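User: I'll paste a sequence; please echo it back and then give the predicted structure.

Assistant: Echoing your sequence first, then the prediction.
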Amino acid sequence: MSVLVNKDSKIIVQGFTGSEGTFHAEQMIEYGTQVVGGVTPGKGGQEHLGRPVFNTVAEAVEKVGADTSIIFVPPAFAADAIMEAANAGIKVIITITEGIPIADMVKAADYIKHRDCRLIGPNCPGVITPGEAKVGIMPGFVFKKGTVGIVSKSGTLTYEAADQVVRQGLGITTAIGIGGDPIIGTTTKDAVELLINDPETEAVVMIGEIGGQLEADAAKWYKASGSKKPIIGFIAGETAPAGRTMGHAGAIVGGSDDTAQAKKKIMREHGIHVVDSPAEIGLKVKEVMGK
């Protein structure tokens, strides 16, 4: 089992022929991901990287049965690309684009609420199920198959956590980079819930950061669920000054509950094993899993 993407996922790349889309599509194909084509308006009928190019997502769904999309469309057009994918019946929409205007994302988030699909991102590294599908920009070689799920707001810390888990002789079921923007599709709680409910995932690493309530919501859901699967948590941004955006657009301390200290306290109170440094993630996972 895995969540969101696997060897059967049929992936298209929106923004396929652009430099970012081309570079990462090549890496995904090399990894063994089933990339069935791409979309670049006006270039339909061409071939790129040995795959067909379509003018619209609807055409890609009809012609090659695409069910998953990864978006490398520039910020000004990315929200439209999300809505187009949702409208065409794509089930998993992974948006890598950073800097999408918030007003655009408000519209896109509302639009997809009424459709049968799941949005990951924007401003995220994507999703990987090791050995099956890499739908994102992460370095595939870091991830080995195993029984630990990863949920992270930070791309770099996703790779760091995976590397540490693997160094402890363990591996990953699926790693989900949810993105660090103020408005994202799949929240920390949503992603944690997917992994807790996955029969092959035995433990979850949850990496959050300052700003917002996502980690607190996930912690409260976890305790209420009664799950016996352990969660290992880390919050980035301990030394960040209040009121200043740090790295991610959503990483800004607005009130006393948004600080790293407050989040860690809430997580501990709800049964999560919290580490104070990302360097401790791998060892803590091994310890709590009793491996």
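The longest strand covers residues 145-152. The radius of gyration is 18 Å.
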